[in-house]
Amino acid sequence: MTRPIIVFDLDGTLVDTAPDLLDSLNHSLAASDLAAVDEAGFRRFVGHGGRVMIERAHAAQNKALVAKEHDRLLKLFLDHYTLNIPGKSRPYSGVIAALDHLQAAGYLMAICTNKYEANSVALIGALGMSKYFAAICGQDTFAFRKPDPRHLTETIRLAGGDPHNALMVGDSQTDIDTAKAAGIPVVAVDFGYTDRHVREFEPTLVISHFDTLTPETAQRLIMAAR
Q1: Is residue 1 scored above 90 in pLDDT?
Q2: Is 131 exposed, middle or buried (0-12, 13-18, 19+ CB in 10 A)?
Q3: Largest separation between any pair of C-alpha atoms in the chain
Q4: Comparing C-alpha atoms, which of 93, 116, 117 is closest to residue 213?
Q5: Out of 9, 16, 171, 177, which one is annotated catalytic?
Q6: Is 9 a catalytic residue?
Q7: Would you place residue 8 in the very low, low, confident or very high pLDDT band (cuts 50, 70, 90)?
Q8: Which pTM value belongs to this model?
């Protein structure tokens, strides 16, 4: 039997990237003569990506946004973000210890994110976390992306795992819906980027700290799903 595998979302799950994504948003907004957004009010939109963040910022300030301008600002956003990796982004409390324990217990691990693959690889590398992951797959790795379940199942296969011996960990409805569609149990962290509590989306388990994600808990959830 293949080793069990745990697949993680990235932003809002493993790493708190909000400070850098919001800095890049404000950099792009300045080019459109808009005021900077308030971090507390906009963190919940971070998980939707730069295009949606730019759109919401314009709507909040009652400024029209045409497609060409939207594309220009998104490029500014992405360029600024890419040039500043890792910036202020840091793993959440307990992440490194949990990854160490899971790796020592023989788990394969991978990342399945709607962030671009190159930025994901660069961020994980800059934070010294590459050694944990057998695959890092972004929105452009395949011809499909979350919530398409193939994004998750193909990440698992690329990492050398089996979807029937797998667990997903994420912070959003997209992650939960993806795992459910793939028939894979899913743990939701409740400290990520969402404007609704993850419990509403009925994940297999909700956790508030990575201390809870032990090898024993992962094994129990995988076995129960079989």
Answers
A1: no
A2: exposed
A3: 58
A4: 93
A5: 9
A6: yes
A7: very high
A8: 0.95
Side chain identity, residue 85: I
For the record, the structure tokens of 6 come out as: 């745990």
Structure tokens at 205: 């388990």
Rounded distance, CA 100 to CA 67, Å?
A: 45
| One-letter-per-residue 3-state SS of 148-213 | CHHHHHHHHHHCCCCHHHEEEEECCHHHHHHHHHHCCCEEEECCCCCCCCHHHHCCCEEECCHHHC
Nearest to 180 by CA among 195, 162, 202: 202
Tokens 């797959």 belong to 137
Q: Tell me the pLDDT tens digit for each residue of 42-95.
A: 888 888 889 999 999 999 999 999 999 999 999 999 999 999 999 999 999 999
Record the tokens describing residue 144, joined without a space.
Answer: 């499909």
Token digits for 8?
A: 């993680």
Q: Please, what sign has the CA dihedral across residues 98, 15, 155, 189? A: positive
Q: Find, among 191, 112, 122, 116, the residue nearest to 157 by Cα.
A: 112
- The DSSP symbol for 35 reads P
Cα separation of the two ends of the chain: 14
**In this structure, are residues 25 and 183 in contact, taking their beta carbons and an 8 Å threshold?**
no
**Residue 16: closest CA among 110, 128, 91, 112:** 91
Q: Residue 135: pLDDT above 80? A: yes
What angle separates helix 67-83 from helix 18-30, to the nearest 10 degrees? Answer: 130
Bridge partners of residue 136, in order along the sequence: 111
Give the pLDDT score at 49.
Answer: 87
